């Protein structure tokens, strides 16, 4: 009888602890985090959604929004993101999983380098590393300022904008200050392409 009573007492203690932990960690804490996010950083808390020229939600600043054909070639009218092992599909996230000694990785990099050099009309040596290598997620919207500058003439010509205008958009979307200090300067391609679309709106294409 004493043993049964002890078991019941322990079960009651465990049940009370489970209820308390559920209330605190499952309800109160998440609610507090969401509340703080909505109060101090609503933009980030709601998915970093960016709006188009008309004020409608257009994309998330956290995801590359690359437009590609069935062969995986990105639309030449826009700034290109880094290569993606998942075709920039936001429903998926993955790297190539190719090791540094895998010949397929070198073949892929060299093929990407040749394609970028041809698209941007530059030499192979001028193609930066981030233009030929995928990110770990395959959804990274950031590229180096070097890769962005490489694409300026192509994008400017496609939208009938001056290279100076497009370069100014690149500069405006280049990270700086603390963000760049903690990592390295980068350009958000998703935000940049939205700015290009806004700058070229109303122009005949």
Report on the architecture of this protein.
This protein is mainly alpha-helical. The protein has two domains: 1-46; 48-200, no CATH class. 51% of the residues lie in helices and 5% in strands. It has helices spanning 2-40, 42-45, 103-120, 145-159, 163-172, 177-182, 189-200, and strands at residues 49-51, 57-60, 142-143, 187-188. The protein starts with a helix and ends in a 5-residue tail after the last helix.
Entry summary:
It is built from 7 helices and 4 strands. The protein is mainly alpha-helical.
Number of domains: 2
Task: Give the CA-CA distance, first to last residue.
Answer: 87 Å
Helix and strand element order = HHEEHEHHHEH
Biggest sheet character: 2 strands, antiparallel
Indicate the structural class.
Answer: mainly alpha
- Determine Rg (CA atoms, Å): 24 Å
User: How is the largest sheet built, in terms of strand order?
Assistant: 1-2
> Helical proportion?
40-55%
The count of helical stretches stands at 7
* Quaternary state of the chains: single chain
Total strand count, please?
Answer: 4
What percent of residues are in strands? 5-15%
Q: Give the low-confidence spans.
A: none
Gross geometry: elongated
Question: Which whole number gives the mean pLDDT?
Answer: 81
Helix/strand layout:
Layout lengths: L1 H39 L1 H4 L3 E3 L5 E4 L42 H18 L21 E2 L1 H15 L3 H10 L4 H6 L4 E2 H12 L5
Antiparallel strand pairs: 1-2, 3-4
Helix pairs in contact: 4-5
């Amino acid at each position: 009888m004493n043993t049964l009573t002890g078991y019941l007492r322990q079960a009651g203690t465990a049940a009370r602890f489970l209820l308390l932990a559920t209330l605190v960690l499952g309800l109160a804490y998440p609610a507090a985090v969401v509340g703080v996010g909505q109060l101090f950083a609503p933009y980030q808390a709601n998915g970093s959604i960016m709006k188009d020229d008309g004020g409608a939600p257009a994309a998330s600043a956290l995801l590359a929004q690359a437009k590609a054909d069935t062969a995986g070639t990105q639309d030449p009218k826009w700034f290109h993101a880094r290569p993606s092992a998942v075709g920039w599909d936001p429903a998926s996230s993955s790297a190539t999983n190719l090791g540094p000694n895998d010949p397929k990785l070198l073949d892929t990099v060299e093929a990407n380098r040749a394609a970028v050099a041809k698209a941007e009309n530059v030499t192979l040596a001028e193609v930066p590393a981030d233009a030929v290598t995928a990110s770990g997620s395959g959804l990274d919207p950031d590229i180096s300022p070097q890769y962005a500058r490489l694409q300026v003439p192509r994008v400017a010509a496609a939208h009938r904008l001056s290279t100076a205008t497009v370069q100014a958009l690149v500069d405006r979307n280049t990270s700086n200050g603390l963000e760049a200090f903690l990592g390295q300067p980068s350009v958000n391609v998703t935000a940049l392409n939205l700015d290009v679309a806004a700058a070229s709106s109303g122009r005949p294409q």
